[in-house]
Amino acid sequence: MPDTDEDILRQLMVRSTDDLFAPPAAATAAIRRQRRRRLRTRAIGAAGTAAAAGVAVGVLVSSSPSPRPAQAGRGGSGTENATPPIRLAAQQTLLSLSAAAAATPRPSGRFVVQAEDTDTTDVYPAGTQTSAGTTLKHQEILTETGKKTSVIDTTNGSVITYQDLSESGKDPFGDTPPAVLKNGTGTEPTNAQLDALPTSTEALRAALLAEAIQQDQPSFMMGPKPTDDDMVFEQAAQVLWDPNLSSDLRAALYKVLADTPGVQVKTDATDSSGRPAVEISRYEAWSKQEVEAFEDAKTGATLESAWVGPSANYAEDLYLSVTYTNTVPPDPYKS
Amino acid sequence: MDRKQERAFEEFVAESGDSLLRLATLLTSDTGLGEDVYQETLHRLAARWSRVANPRAFCRQVMRNIVIDQSRLKRRQVPQIRLAAEHDDSDPRSADPTSAVELRPALLDALRTLTPQQRMIVVLRYFDDRSENEVAGLLGVSTGTVKSAASRAMAHLREQPGISGLLTQTETDPTVQRIRYA
Hints:
The complex is a heterodimer. By secondary structure, chain A is of the alpha+beta class. In chain A, 27% of the residues lie in helices and 25% in strands. In chain A, strands 1-6-7-8-9-10-2-3-4-5 form a ten-stranded antiparallel β-sheet, covered by helices on one side. Chain A starts with a helix and ends in a 10-residue tail after the last strand. Chains A and B meet through helix 1, helix 2 and strand 2 of A and helix 1, helix 2, helix 3, helix 4 and helix 5 of B.
């Protein structure tokens, strides 16, 4: 028998929550997000709300996609309920993007120069161990703002990243971010590797699925697992992010999306910087996350991608500009 | 995280996930918010996994930060569905007045009437079994504040209709008595 009210309260708290069990997918979702951030080495999180105030034109339904719960606090999320009658409109938009991509040749130039914006905030609680071996006495909020320009060698996949540190916040872990990051060959896919991907819709879908399975290893996941369509969509969005795709490959990727159930499309959305865009999105029931891509309707190029959820988690990558050159440009932020 | 770190992270979550979710639920007094806080805590932990020496302490601190800074959370639009409203009399657990399905709505309602600091002190002290010094350090307050806030919180909880009948209506904790009569 408990002796005190404190003991009784303790038992009440234990008993009233002992039927709550953590969703098995939670750990996997957290790991996947970290993988994405690591894999996309040249992408940066850009905070802010995508002002995607567009009109939903359709959603592809050929199986039974999970209903997408409303996302609070964010505009332009598209139709909530899939209805077959508007299916053709979404497909038509994706096929139009495919045609636009097919008509836009890949620019020449060995190096892709990508300028991106950074605006991320992390909170580090008191007690956190720093890399310098010290312990934070108080909560620290690290805000990283500024610009970053990555130079990708399309022949060997090496990357040089110039970082604008003038607006960077203090790192509570004692790390001093380098002004220039150099990653060796194979960091990014080369043009040759990208060109080796098939461009027929069926073969490309199979290749995307195989790559996603290799990356995500769903057979080792605990709890809910992604469907093939989940993996194909996310992998396609990931490949579309690469600006140096051949026109045939980019066009084929949109055709794959046009055949993927659950894809939602909005034609008059805008990206975070206000540029007109076609928003392509898909909700993953297993991870409670929506994957979004904002595309340039005229060229089929990706302007921005975002992950919304689960709960309040949000991440997005935004291109400011993409140019091509045959020589490595100097550090644009070096004064 | 490399694969080895990912496995370690998964093992930690497998071992501690349930208790962390329950802690988050009590700290927020809301099963839905608790799940949100739990998920966000895991994301932050994963982002700093290789640098965090004590994952459970890290999670506790992150939860504290989120609860204190409610503005960092999107408030849920849909009111929580009370489990009691879905109660099925054919469920054999219905005969047990202290089963989780019966207790939780009343307890969470009662905890919700406390201030965020009082709630954290009560939950960390009596559910998470943290010492007064630990709670004081976590919240950035003095040990005396922890003691007095816990005392006030208990007195307040004794007046809550949902759980008042379960408490003894007396203060028998010698720690509380020392504070009161010191």
